[in-house]
Write a structure and sequence with these properties.
Number of helices: 13
CATH topology of the domain at 2-194 and 226-253 and 297-317: Rossmann fold
Bound molecules: nicotinamide-adenine-dinucleotide, 2'deoxy-thymidine-5'-diphospho-alpha-D-glucose
Mean pLDDT: 95
Largest sheet: 7 strands, parallel
CATH superfamily of the domain at 2-194 and 226-253 and 297-317: NAD(P)-binding Rossmann-like Domain
Radius of gyration: 20 Å
CATH architecture of the domain at 2-194 and 226-253 and 297-317: 3-Layer(aba) Sandwich
């Protein structure tokens, strides 16, 4: 089977690719623009495999997309490429509208053209899997409410509004043109190879450097954390076995306030890495409360019972086991994150991108 993964140099896309190459015999074509968030070092453990290939492509470039569809001939497209960081969408929404809306439109049109001309058996087995977020639902009012697959859309940020738009496009291409799609909406991911602008790696690396740990507002917002490798398993399961047209919510049953997450990181660092920068007695003393994110969603929590019931998926990691592994991974993998912090990881792309 041939799987085209968009955004495979990003955090979740690279976990999907490592899972496919390590655990299946499928062939993968990674297509990625290599924005600031794309890093081919995240797939270096599998990129030597004969199952793997890479093309540096912007999903807004229809001609380039047509060319790779025609040469690779995918059975499945797993679409993860996106601008993904809420704070950046507030500072500058343009790239979000381009990639997350226009890029999805371009990709859908090229996929439709390719799918339409496939022979009958290949056509009926083809899937376009759109990977989306729980942020399309906005935030939850009641303490015990959960997002289900039928929760109405109410996005709050430019990022989540652009992802909601893309979900609508994907469903419209299914209903109007018959494109065989599946869709997933997932909660906050964490784990290895996450770009250090996101809460968990940002806090780990700032703590190690003795820098402030900035919590937005009161730090009492709630997120539902899922280990990225559990997400990658769920995604491949949906892409290869979900019925056409279905949507699944994916979550880890790990609701935590941001301040609790940061305390847990500090406690783990005290235990595993007690050697602190000079002048720092306690990692928790680095916590600082800063101006809140505009439009900040208060609480996300996922009802993942549909994917558990229908496809038999369950997360393997608890937050305690997954966070410990993640903190240890950042301690052990300075060679991955230091070039990212220095901005030098761009150099690592040269000669590896394959054009
Ligand atoms: P990421 O920012 O780490 O990676 C995104 C990747 O997409 C990068 O490699 C980047 O180079 C690539 N990309 C960006 N614009 C592109 C374009 N125009 N053409 C081709 N490639 C482009 O993101 P992530 O955290 O891995 O998220 C992947 C997907 O999962 C996104 O669609 C995101 O909305 C969704 N999602 C993320 C989370 C999370 O917690 N991180 C949770 C739920 C859903
Ligand atoms: O819910 C899924 C979404 O999770 C994905 O769709 C997004 O792509 C992904 O970025 C993530 O969005 P969040 O905004 O929830 O993630 P982030 O790591 O930016 O922030 C998590 C929480 O921590 C949020 O409430 C904001 C807060 N925060 C974040 C940072 C970076 C802080 O308090 N301080 C910080 O420095």
């Amino acid at each position: 089977m041939k799987i085209m993964v968009t955004g495979g140099a990003g955090f979740i896309g690279s976990a999907v690719i490592r899972h496919i190459i390590n655990d299946t015999s499928c062939h993968v074509l990674n297509i990625d623009k290599l924005t600031y968030a794309g890093n081919l070092n995240s797939v270096s453990s599998v990129s030597g495999s004969s199952q793997y290939s890479f093309k540096q492509i912007d999903i807004c470039d229809s001609a380039a997309l047509k060319s790779v569809f025609s040469t690779f001939q995918p059975d499945i497209v797993m679409h993860l490429a996106a601008e993904s960081h809420v704070d950046r969408s507030i500072d500058g929404p343009d790239a979000f509208m381009e990639t997350n809306i226009m890029g999805v439109y371009k990709l859908l049109e090229v996929t439709r053209g390719y799918w339409n001309q496939l022979p009958k058996d290949k056509k009926s087995n083809f899937r376009f899997h759109h990977i989306s977020t729980d942020e399309v639902y906005g935030d939850l009012e009641g303490e015990n409410d959960l997002f289900t697959e039928t929760t109405p859309y109410a996005p709050s940020s430019p990022y989540s509004a652009s992802k909601a738009s893309s979900d609508h496009l994907v469903r419209a291409w299914h209903r109007t043109f018959g494109l065989p799609i599946v869709l997933t909406n997932c909660s906050n991911n964490y784990g290895p190879f996450q770009f250090p602008e996101k809460l968990i790696p940002h806090m780990i690396l700032n703590a190690l450097a003795g820098k402030p740990l900035p919590l937005y507002g009161k730090g009492n917002q709630i997120r539902d954390w899922l280990h990225v490798e559990d997400h990658a398993r769920a995604l491949l399961l949906v892409a290869t076995s979900a019925p056409i047209g279905k949507t699944y919510n994916i979550g880890g049953h790990n609701e935590m306030q941001n301040v609790e997450v940061v305390h847990a990181i500090c406690d783990l660092l005290e235990e595993i890495h007690p050697e602190k920068p000079e002048g720092i007695n306690n990692y928790q003393n680095l916590i600082t409360y800063v101006t809140d994110r505009p439009g900040h969603d208060r609480r996300y929590a996922i009802d993942a019972s549909k994917i558990e019931r229908e496809l038999g998926w369950r997360p393997a990691e608890t937050f305690q086991t997954g966070l410990r592994k993640t903190v240890q991974w950042y301690l052990d993998n300075k060679s991955w994150w230091q070039p990212v912090l220095d901005g030098n990881y761009h150099l690592n792309r040269i000669g590896k991108s394959g054009g």
